[in-house]
Design goal:
Layout: H1 7-12, H2 40-48, H3 62-75, E1 79-83, H4 86-96, E2 103-107, H5 112-126, E3 129-133, H6 138-144, E4 149-155, H7 167-176, E5 180-184, H8 189-192, E6 202-206, E7 220-224, H9 226-240, H10 246-256, H11 259-278, E8 283-287, H12 297-303, E9 310-315, H13 320-329, E10 334-335, E11 345-347, H14 349-356, H15 359-364, E12 371-375, H16 381-392
Parallel strand pairs: 2-3, 2-4, 4-5, 5-6, 10-11
Antiparallel strand pairs: 1-7, 6-7, 8-9, 9-12, 11-12
Helix pairs in contact: 3-10, 4-9, 11-16
């Protein structure tokens, strides 16, 4: 008799592969580039369906497939495809949904490299047109739809200031107009938010963040219906070459066994630290959907079951020198561009966003000079608070 398992339990087990692998409790790494066949007819049949047959590891590999199956199940998707980076997954998902001359709607403060891919690369190379909306109201998306709109790209919560979009409402709107929806769901992780259950077509993650969680892998993944993922495997993934290496997939499998536990610790510490920051005299604003004071907290509570460990706050200053002094004064928080690992990190968007984005786009994102982003790791939260306190004592 089968048991309906909770996510925590599913994450601890690697399917039914134990006894296929001589009882190994940890599955092996298939560190090979190709797969041999016994006969002409065997390989001929495999080429009829390369998305479901092991031929060459650029397309399919057993270790990678094990990780993909675990991620797909966690996300409530039919299939997943791991890529060499988060942007590999995001760009593959976007390219799957568009053709030359199409129109895309996205949010104004979408992740910087995604913004560049949409608003610069696709516009210049493919004649794509883009409409940016703030995203808080579904009406904004409806008003932006044209007869050429084929994709709505979402990121909820969004980068840096963490505004949410109403995923169910936007999914219903998109389905009504036969428009595809894609979401970057990295912030919440599949533990705390399941966009596919809310009607979104394709879900992407930077697996470098929470899915891996140990800051030792760069990876991405796209999840959705089998028909969509198969098409991505045969086109964007195979032809653009953003393949996942077996060792990295094995490390993701390792990491996902503790994903649920890690997310709960990230959330617990982040809620405590965000609440403390709200009370600090040198902090003018805290951006974290888990706070009751966050403008969209009700929506967050409705479409998420928990909160990630990434937040931002505004130091009460317009002096970049004070921001630098704060960042340089931190001892436990390390200065780095990524997040979602075991270690706590700090980053100021003023370092790179000014270089990556035009002044108009930077302003449209609503980012102030004093904005600082922190990723809450797995350290004791009182030690992290003490570090923030001494650095804010400028």
């Amino acid at each position: 008799m089968s048991i309906n398992l909770h996510d925590d339990t599913e994450l601890c087990h690697d399917g039914d592969s134990y006894f296929e692998n001589k009882g190994a409790i940890v599955p092996p790494i298939y560190q090979n580039s190709l797969f041999a066949f016994e006969s002409w007819d065997d390989i001929d049949r495999a080429f009829d369906d390369p998305a479901d047959n092991f031929i060459y590891s650029r397309i399919l590999n057993p270790t990678v497939e094990m990780a993909e199956e675990k991620i797909a199940k966690l996300c409530r998707g039919e299939r997943a495809k791991l890529c060499a980076s988060g942007m590999g997954a995001i760009s593959a998902a976007i390219m799957h949904c568009i053709t030359s001359g199409d129109h895309i709607i996205t949010i104004s403060n979408v992740y910087g490299p995604t913004n560049n891919f949409l608003g610069k690369y696709l516009v210049e190379k493919c004649g794509i047109s883009i409409t940016y909306v703030k995203g808080a109201s579904t009406d904004e998306f409806e008003d932006a739809i044209t007869d050429r709109t084929t994709l709505i790209f979402l990121e909820s919560p969004a980068s840096m200031t963490f505004e949410l979009q109403d995923l169910s409402a936007i999914a219903q709107l998109a389905q009504k107009h036969k428009i595809k929806t894609v979401i970057d769901n990295t912030w919440a992780s599949p533990v705390f938010q399941k966009p596919l259950d809310l009607g979104i077509d394709l879900e992407c993650h930077s697996a470098s963040k929470y899915l891996c969680g140990h800051s030792d892998v760069v990876a991405g993944v796209v999840i959705g219906k089998k028909v969509d993922i198969d098409a991505i495997i045969n086109a964007e993934h195979a032809l653009l070459g953003a393949k996942m290496a077996p060792l990295e997939a094995w490390l993701i499998l390792r990491s996902m066994r503790t994903l649920s536990l890690r997310m709960k610790r990230h959330e617990q510490s982040a809620l405590r630290i965000a609440s403390w920051l709200e009370t600090h005299p040198n902090v003018s604003k805290v951006y974290f959907p888990g706070l009751p004071s966050f403008p969209q907290h009700q929506l967050a509570s409705r479409q998420m079951t928990g909160y990630g460990g990434l937040m931002s706050f505004e130091i009460d200053t317009s002096d970049i020198g004070i921001v630098k002094r704060f960042v340089n004064g931190l001892q436990l928080f390390k200065l780095g561009v990524s997040w979602g690992g075991h270690e706590s990190l700090v980053y100021s968007p003023s370092i790179s966003y000014i270089k990556e984005l035009s002044p108009d786009k930077f302003k449209a994102m609503g980012i102030q000079i004093g904005l600082v982003r922190i990723s809450i790791g797995l350290e004791h939260c009182e030690d992290l608070i003490a570090d923030l306190a001494q650095a804010l004592d400028y």
